[in-house]
Amino acid sequence: xxxxxxxxxxxxxxxxxxxxxxxxxxxxxxxxxxxxxxxxxxxxxxxxxxxxxxxxxxxxxxxxxxxxxxxxxxxxxxxxxxxxxxxxxxxxxxxxxxxxxxxxxxxxxxxxxxxxxxxxxxxxxxxxxxxxxxxxxxxxxxxxxxxxxxxxxxxxxxxxxxxxxxxxxxxxxxxxxxxxxxxxxxxxxxxxxxxxxxxxxxxxxxxxxxxxxxxxxxxxxxxxxxxxxxxxxxxxxxxxxxxxxxxxxxxxxxxxxxxxxxxxxxxxxxxxxxxxxxxxxxxxxxxxxxxxxxxxxxxxxxxxxxxxxxxxxxx
Length: 315
Known about the structure:
single chain; alpha/beta
């Protein structure tokens, strides 16, 4: 092994170690102990563990809600690839003879109400593009869905990948979601967890977003900022604290299934360990899920159990 390989392996090991624990929270507890030795009468405010389930609505429906041209093109593409079972399912859904596989919203509502939880839903409302494929925010399906979800959850914006932290574009996307609810949108999570620092947070601050939930890795579980309690973003270049509170997530459904290739059983174990680590330091446990990942459709078969087990364990 040469020195470069050794450095790379050491860096990877440190990354794993740092991701695996909310180190800042542990360090804060140690610092409190030291301070109490010198100032035994000092009183610290105590954190309380909280569970904030979040849902990203990247693609509200697998087949419904799209323009006629997009629907026909998609159907023909499926046929050209000889995916006849998928083509038949598409036809049945479009003819309203079968439920859209991504339409898991009634189920989500029942679970959140069962555990008396207050979830946050982040809606993608950008123009259709290579990385932004939700149904049109101008469609009746989109508008009805936002209104439905707002009856039991907080609504946030999911700034599109193509927005590139452009305040004008993100503002337009916020309006397209906000017009369907009676409250102002103040929370966000970037599509594909795309962060451009400090531009992203400067953009959000300019638009009145007070809470952001992007601070999570797509390719790994754990604590991206080494902390599981919220903190305000400090703009090093401008030497100011921006009025955007950062909430760090620790796990995403796609990370477990698509990146790490875990089985549902193994995913339950990983999630359980993360929950306990957050509880130990009285932090926020913030998982990221999508409507399609609890559809029991395709490679998501068996993951509804993971979702329900997490809800019971984390609550």
